[in-house]
Design brief:
Helices cover about 20% and strands about 30% of the residues. The chain is of the alpha+beta class. The protein has two domains: about 180 residues, no CATH class; about 110 residues, Beta Barrel (Elongation Factor Tu (Ef-tu), domain 3).
Length: about 400
């Protein structure tokens, strides 16, 4: 006799066994692990890509900023090429002011491979800047220059007085124009006795000319400035320096004409870890206008500065995100080619046919720098205002 129908149906209604449940849990865990690993890997790649993009933007903008300022350096100075390298003496009130030398660019080497400092000098006279010749001897105690023209000279302008031949006893001095008298007479203070009816640049001391010392005795050479000397109009002077801070940022320091003791300091771009620069020099005899040497030796003579035609700059940017693993094992390599000799260059690791400079980004004893990615940007910048004598 057959069993009732409901007994046969009840036999088929049963759940999962323990083994089936355990297999299902294992499969689910494995699937979750694979998905999590995929997401972690994808997020890491995304983060690395994003940080690499940030480094590329910061590095490119930092290099562009330095390049633009180097291109403008020397404006107003190149028109008097024999003045290049002249040491400058200046004083604001009772305080000496460090303007160093009359050159478009000065490179200060960082110690033991640290970042360099690039200092740039130019005139702020945008419309024109014409060198002015001194036509009458200017004694040390005089307060008025007799010149061939006062074109473009305005009250308040800063001017550098350049002797025909500068040396240790005949340097350059900074004065501030308190009056420009076209065909005028005396300008107050001590006069050089040049006479009436000549163009004058007057630099009286006092509140109207805080850069001017009484009679110039604290900054002028003992013999003053003879006929044939040159006045270079700096306007309000552009004196900027670029350096890398301890916090890894490109820093710009701008000279403050009204308060020299308190320059304007700005952090322009973050995650910049290196700034390296070389002078590009034409050392051929006779000169052929072609750079054949790049080095970091600052010239000390006018002839040496005449050799400097370009500046070669490299900027290294670092990714913002620290990687868990070591992602960089060696310092970035700066490929400088073989067209001209470069100080400190050696054969590249990838190709012996090229020359490279190793750019230091970390200390050997501290491997923290190896957990970041780096990008190097470089360019060669002609000193066009010197080349064009503008």
């Amino acid at each position: 006799m057959s069993r009732p129908l409901h007994h046969r149906a009840g036999r088929k209604q049963h759940g999962f066994t323990l083994i089936e449940l355990m297999v299902g849990v294992v499969i689910a865990l494995l699937s979750t692990l694979v998905i999590a690993q995929t997401l972690v890997l994808s997020e890491g790649q995304k983060r690395s890509t994003t940080n690499g993009s940030d480094a590329q933007v910061n590095g490119a903008l930092a290099l562009y900023t330095v390049q633009r300022e180097v291109q403008m350096s020397g404006y107003g100075l190149g028109a008097a090429p024999t003045s290049l390298g002249c040491p400058i003496r200046a004083q604001f009130g009772a305080t000496a002011v460090d303007l160093d030398t009359l050159v478009p660019v000065t490179i200060t080497n960082g110690a033991d491979g640290a970042a360099d400092t690039v200092r740039l000098l130019s005139s702020s006279k945008i419309n024109f800047s014409v060198p002015t010749q001194v036509v009458v001897d200017h004694p040390k105690t005089a307060a008025n220059f007799f010149v061939n023209t006062t074109l473009g000279i305005n009250e308040g302008d800063l001017m550098v007085v350049v002797p025909e031949q500068w040396d240790a006893d005949n340097w350059c001095s900074v004065v501030q124009v308190t009056n420009d008298a076209a065909g005028g007479g005396g300008g107050g203070g001590s006069s050089n006795g040049g006479g009436q009816g000549q163009n004058q640049v007057i630099h009286n001391s006092g509140t109207d000319g805080p850069w001017n010392q009484p009679g110039g005795q604290t900054i002028f050479p003992d013999n003053g400035y003879p006929k044939g000397s040159t006045l270079i109009n700096l306007g309000q002077i552009i004196d900027r320096s670029f350096a890398v801070t301890a916090g890894n940022a490109l820093q710009q320091t701008t000279f403050n004409v009204t308060a020299p003791a308190t320059p304007l300091v700005e952090e322009l771009f973050p995650h910049i870890v290196q700034l390296q620069a070389y002078y590009g020099k034409d050392t051929s005899a006779p000169a052929d206008g072609v750079v054949d040497v790049y080095d970091d030796v600052t010239p000390t003579t006018q002839a040496g500065w005449a050799q400097v035609l370009t500046v070669r700059v490299a900027v290294v940017a670092r990714s913002a995100q620290r990687e868990r693993e070591i992602v960089t094992t060696v310092d970035p390599s700066w490929n400088v080619g073989t067209a001209a000799g470069v100080s400190g260059a050696a054969a590249c690791a990838a190709s012996a046919a090229a020359s490279c400079v190793s750019v230091k980004v970390g200390e050997a004893a501290d491997e923290e720098w190896k957990h970041y990615r780096y990008k190097l940007f470089d360019t060669v910048i002609p000193l066009r205002n010197v080349l064009w004598q503008s």
